[in-house]
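Section 5: illustrative case.
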């Protein structure tokens, strides 16, 4: 029976069929808020020392928006969701790779409930099979996208896809870039849980919200992504000038340079 269910999920003709819509019902939203606060709140506080900047920029915006963030660890999503003000967090869904998170029904239900994910394809720049995402944006759900399509290999950012910019322009929404520093050291690719020994300091993590970008049309997608890339580069430079958050945290945690190993599996969350 388990094999048959898995095959049905894999053979679904589109991402809309894989979407777990009940994860956005009122009951599921209350449960998710409890999980993010009651479980992830204490866990993240034990393993990380987080600092946010740029939140005031959200005060000038009306939901929904398209958040675009760099991605280097599976811990990025809970950290970013916890960094959002509650009114934004409760109405934000996370784009997740359908071929990774939705190939098994139990995994799909879990990530959908806990992180409010929505399945997307990574082929074609992420612009194919998005009718279900369009409906969510029309229903005032904000969307978090990792435009790299996978966790970055090493500390250098990879090429960013333009699908998020196209979506934002089509719906006349702002693109809000978000940069995370320090998450790779806290939970490197290949690990299923953050790492910290009792006598070690918490991993420093920074979450920076950038200036909103307002693409005028889908034709501006490359310019929009270039602005996002410039923001990421500026934040990387700031982290390096401050001592390189990832590498410094690696030395504090292990007495050696920070981990720059490759990821274990492509993921959009």
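Designed sequence:
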């Amino acid at each position: 029976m388990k094999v048959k269910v898995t095959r049905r999920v894999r053979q679904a003709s589109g991402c809309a069929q894989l979407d777990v819509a009940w994860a956005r019902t009122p009951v599921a939203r209350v449960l998710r808020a409890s999980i993010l606060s009651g479980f992830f709140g204490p866990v993240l506080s034990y393993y990380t020392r987080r600092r946010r900047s740029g939140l005031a920029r959200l005060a000038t915006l009306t939901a929904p928006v398209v958040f675009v963030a760099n991605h280097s660890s599976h811990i990025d999503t809970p950290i970013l969701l916890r960094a959002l003000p509650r009114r934004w967090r409760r109405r934000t869904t996370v784009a997740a790779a359908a071929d990774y998170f939705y190939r098994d029904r139990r995994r799909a239900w879990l990530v959908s409930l806990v992180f409010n994910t929505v399945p997307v394809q990574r082929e074609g720049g992420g612009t194919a099979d998005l009718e279900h995402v369009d409906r969510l944006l029309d229903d005032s759900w904000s969307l978090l996208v990792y435009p790299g399509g996978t966790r970055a290999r090493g500390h250098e950012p990879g090429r960013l896809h333009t699908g998020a910019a196209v979506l934002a322009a089509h719906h006349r929404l702002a693109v809000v870039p978000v940069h995370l520093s320090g998450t790779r050291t806290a939970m490197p690719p290949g690990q299923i849980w953050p790492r910290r020994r009792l006598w070690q300091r918490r991993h420093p993590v920074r979450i920076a919200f950038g200036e909103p970008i307002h693409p005028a049309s889908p034709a501006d997608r490359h310019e929009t992504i270039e602005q996002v890339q410039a923001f990421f580069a500026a934040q990387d430079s700031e982290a390096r000038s401050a001592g390189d958050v990832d590498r410094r945290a690696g030395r504090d945690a292990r007495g050696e340079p920070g981990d720059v190993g490759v990821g274990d599996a492509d993921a959009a969350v």
